[in-house]
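Regression test case RT-17, inverse folding.

Input:
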């Protein structure tokens, strides 16, 4: 009987602690806390000329389509995302690859997952100062 009372008491404290959390006010919930929250992660950015081949790049294009437009990159870099370490995550964003184009910018692809690798443009950053190699 003593064990039942102890279990009931622990359960009551656990449930009470969960109910004691407070909600944010509407104003607090609407305000983003960081710069990253203001800008979407998947985007095309930069002040590229309208006649530039970079202007033809669209989110979701395949790696082959980009190579037809920009040619082969100067260098590439592949890396895992944090989603690779989530148990039972079978989505397509467990790996990314960056392609560096000297004097043009960086194209980031995503699409590696449990079903194979199907690289699609995730982010494109136009930067004429790009040296063509990763900084790290």
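Golden output:
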């Amino acid at each position: 009987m003593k064990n039942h009372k102890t279990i009931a008491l622990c359960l009551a404290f656990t449930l009470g602690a969960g109910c004691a959390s407070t909600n944010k006010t509407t104003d607090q919930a609407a305000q983003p806390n960081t710069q990253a929250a203001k800008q979407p992660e998947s985007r095309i950015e930069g002040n590229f000329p309208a006649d530039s081949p970079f202007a033809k790049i669209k989110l979701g294009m395949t790696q082959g389509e980009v190579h037809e437009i920009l040619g082969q990159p100067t260098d590439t870099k592949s890396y895992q995302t944090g989603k690779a370490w989530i148990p039972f995550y079978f989505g397509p964003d467990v790996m990314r690859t960056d392609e560096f184009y000297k004097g043009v910018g960086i194209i980031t692809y995503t699409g590696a997952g449990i079903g194979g690798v199907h690289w699609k443009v995730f982010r494109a950053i136009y930067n004429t100062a790009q040296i063509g190699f990763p900084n790290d």
